[in-house]
Specification:
With 552 residues, the chain is of the alpha+beta class. It has 19 helices and 19 strands. It has helices spanning 2-13, 20-31, 60-69, 117-130, 165-168, 177-181, 197-202, 250-259, 271-277, 308-316, 320-328, 356-365, 370-375, 387-402, 414-420, 443-446, 468-479, 483-500, 545-550; strands at 40-45, 74-77, 81-84, 87-92, 98-103, 146-148, 153-157, 210-216, 220-225, 241-246, 264-265, 283-298, 332-333, 378-383, 407-412, 430-436, 503-516, 519-520, 539-540.
């Protein structure tokens, strides 16, 4: 693999020379069948990819795009959290505040320029300065606390120890500093202007296994294999191209999947449709239990959800069993804010069972009169085009009416939901939402239950919940190096949060995906969602007659 990479680098330097043609031919031969055929993986997805900027990516398909175009310092590993990737090793000081990462040599971005420590420093400083959604997991850093030591070493100086810092680095993506600086637009960040936000939103500045082919917002994203990628050995059956065909209508996705016009269906495809499709033996279905939590995010800042009894009433009117049976098709009940598997040593959190009579008792105990509670309908935001989200919102609205609360369902673009959450006055009363475990640490879910998470442009950023004791416990968990003490603090915080009911904790996800059997889908992602969607690790069966027919 190293020799292949060196040869590719030499070929790059010959561009425009008389030797270039022969060099390219030799390179093609050296890679074998991996580039001999344009194997294409086509996925019909329901949500648009509104940005290519990894700092701002929040929905499933944005994240999947970013995780393939960009690389991270570390790679998730189920057995010990993370393993080396762009960083070949690291060390941490005795006080837990100073992290030093040694960077591999010989890595390049898609434009052929070298990836160095300066790119990593720039990328983190950019993320923190923009205060983008991706910055949520790095609150203990300031931009001036990230420094390069030569070309191949980076130092992070945390303001206090952080037990989740290393795990969170799987979400931190590295951008090409020089390319971004060449494409600055007017903005509020001094010499950095807009920090390249306009450019990176629609262009490629990465080093990952795939580079951008086509980006047509709301229609199509095409990724093409980066042949010079040194961190993977390309397989002859790995896809050379990946297409996200953005199709908000679930019925259309089902029709295209049956017709062989796409290879994978959105996992939001209604479960009854997926089970009907998989009755055809040419298709496969996967049902993967995930550390992914479904919520109804509530805006605690505004009436009437500023009253804990109203929030408890909403939680008691949430019919998880019907939702799982008739809408999502599978899932496990959640008592508190974190999937049980991520807090294995906690005493069970009971939560709020579906009980309309109990919900009415909570309503009667609130500070609001019946007239006040019906004066303004609660706005429930559901992602436009998602049948699952819309049906959950409709079920919620129906049950809230039964306990004396008015509610109206609004179909809203994902990008507009996240933008609205950044201000308590514009944040929706309730948002149907699920959050995947992008890394394996409870703080991923709990970071929004403190003032530091207020206003993040992400659904739970619009929760505006505060309990001083919860904040204290989360601080204890974050700064302790004792795993037992961390777990104890997280458990106590989760119990207190549940009592306050700042959101409805619904159920965990079973990701259900239907696809043609010639696709080998979702290989091991090391316990972190979206790393199982790194497409250099996927395979297409080139001997399949169905593949040959669908992709002539």
């Amino acid at each position: 693999m190293t020799n292949n990479f060196s040869f590719r680098q030499a070929c790059r330097k010959m561009r425009g020379s008389a030797l270039a043609l022969g060099c390219s031919a030799l390179l093609l031969t050296s890679m074998g069948d991996a580039v001999a055929r344009d194997l294409k993986l086509r996925w019909g997805v329901g949500m648009e990819v509104s940005t290519l900027d990894p700092a701002y990516q929040t929905n499933n398909w944005e994240l999947a795009t970013g995780y393939n175009m960009y690389d991270s310092l570390v790679w998730p590993a189920a057995e010990n959290g993370v393993k080396p990737w762009v960083a070949e090793s690291w060390s941490v000081s005795k006080d837990g505040r100073t992290w030093t990462f040694d960077i591999r040599e010989g890595l390049t971005f898609h434009d052929g320029s070298p990836l160095t420590a300066e790119d990593i420093v720039f990328s983190m400083q950019r993320l923190l300065t923009l205060n983008a959604p991706g910055a949520t997991s790095f609150r203990g850093l300031t931009p001036d606390a990230v420094k390069a030591q030569g070309d191949h070493s980076v130092v992070f100086e945390l303001d206090k120890p952080s037990s989740s810092f290393l795990a969170a680095l799987v979400t931190f993506k590295i951008l090409n500093k020089d390319l971004v600086l060449k494409n600055l637009a007017d903005g509020p960040h001094g010499d950095m202007k807009d920090y390249g936000a306009a450019f990176v939103r629609t262009n490629d500045a990465g080093s990952g296994p795939f580079e951008l082919g086509t980006y047509s917002q709301g229609e199509l994203v095409t990724l093409k294999r980066f042949d010079a990628y040194p961190l993977a050995q390309w397989d002859a059956q790995a896809p050379a191209t990946v297409e996200f065909q953005i199709t908000p209508e679930m019925a259309t996705i089902g029709t295209k999947l049956r017709a062989g016009e796409i290879d994978m269906g959105d996992w939001s495809l209604p479960i009854r449709v997926q089970r009907d499709i998989v009755a055809d033996p040419r298709f496969a279905i996967r049902e993967d239990p995930m550390n992914t939590a479904w919520y109804l995010i509530m805006n605690n800042a505004n009436a009437p959800l500023d009253d804990v009894n109203v929030r408890r009433a909403v939680a008691s009117a949430h019919d998880e069993a019907t939702l799982i049976r008739n809408i999502t098709g599978a899932g496990g009940l959640m008592g508190g804010p974190v999937p049980d598997a991520m807090l294995p040593n906690c005493e069970p959190i009971a939560g709020y069972d579906f009980n309309l009579d109990k919900a009415r008792e909570y309503i009667a105990a609130s500070k609001y009169s019946a007239d006040e509670l019906t004066a303004r309908p609660l706005k429930i935001a559901a992602v436009a085009g998602s049948e699952r989200f819309n049906n959950i919102a409709l079920l919620t609205a129906s049950n809230l009416k039964k306990i004396g609360l008015n509610a109206e369902v609004q179909a809203v673009r994902w990008a507009d939901i996240t933008a609205a959450q950044s201000n308590p006055e514009t944040a929706f009363d309730l948002v149907v939402f699920y959050d995947p475990a992008k890394y394996n640490d409870p703080m991923l879910f709990l970071s929004y239950y403190r003032k530091a998470g207020w206003g993040d442009p992400y659904p739970p950023g619009g929760m505006y919940y505060h309990n001083p004791k919860v904040t204290e416990l989360l601080e204890t968990a974050q700064t302790s190096s004792d795993i037992t003490a961390q777990q104890k603090a997280y458990c106590e915080a989760a119990h207190l949060i549940t009592q306050d009911s700042p959101s409805v904790f619904s159920h965990t996800e079973v990701r259900t995906t239907t696809y043609w059997k010639y696709v080998s889908a979702f290989p091991d992602g090391g316990g972190a969602m979206f790393y199982d969607m790194r497409f250099e690790n996927w395979r297409l069966d080139t001997e399949s007659e169905d593949l040959k027919r669908n992709q002539p």
